[in-house]
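Do me a favour: review this protein, sequence plus structure tokens, and tell me how the chain folds. Record follows.
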Amino acid sequence: MRTLLALLVAGAFAALATTASGAPLPSPAVDLPRATAPGTQTAVFAGGCFWGVEAVFRHMKGVHSAVSGYAGGRTKNPTYEDVSTGMTGHAEAVEVKFDPSQVTYGELLRVFMSAAHDPTELNRQGPDVGTQYRSALYFVNDEQQRIARAYIAQLDGAKAYPAKIVTELAPLTAFYRAEAYHQDYLARHPTQPYIVYNDLPKLEALKRDYPSLVRAAPLRGAP
């Protein structure tokens, strides 16, 4: 939960991944080529507070929608308060619908593993602590599982980060949309201290490190 204390100290804990070299991550060695025809696919990512992760994907080319919600747990139709207890098994997550002719799963994964969160932090991101803030990839098919597993191994093998990647890899069993007030939160609260210190730097990293993947204008509003 984004408590008052978390808001006050957030500047000291901005959750951005820092690679060993300080350079952008390499592209996944295992990925699918961009599709030859437009379409829609789904991917689900968990990387701490969903506000910032959602905002990063809303700024990416080829993304049709990015929705904050909950995944990976046991409780059906959980509320934010339920998930914040850490007892539901759910993580704050973002469901991304994207056009594979414009952006690949591997390209989404590359941004997620660097600009959107720190994959070496276990059960926390920045000032937020608990299993609900864990790093996780919830794959929807065998191809996503194969690409994600290979990329984690690639980055660990290359020692891309000073610490080992702790991202959970699991099949998606259900995704529950979060409450309306969480959707497009960064765009609606750009001056909130938590957003300023923890999430706006993620957008800066996306634009700096992956300019070819940034859309001209971000998606706005709740899908």
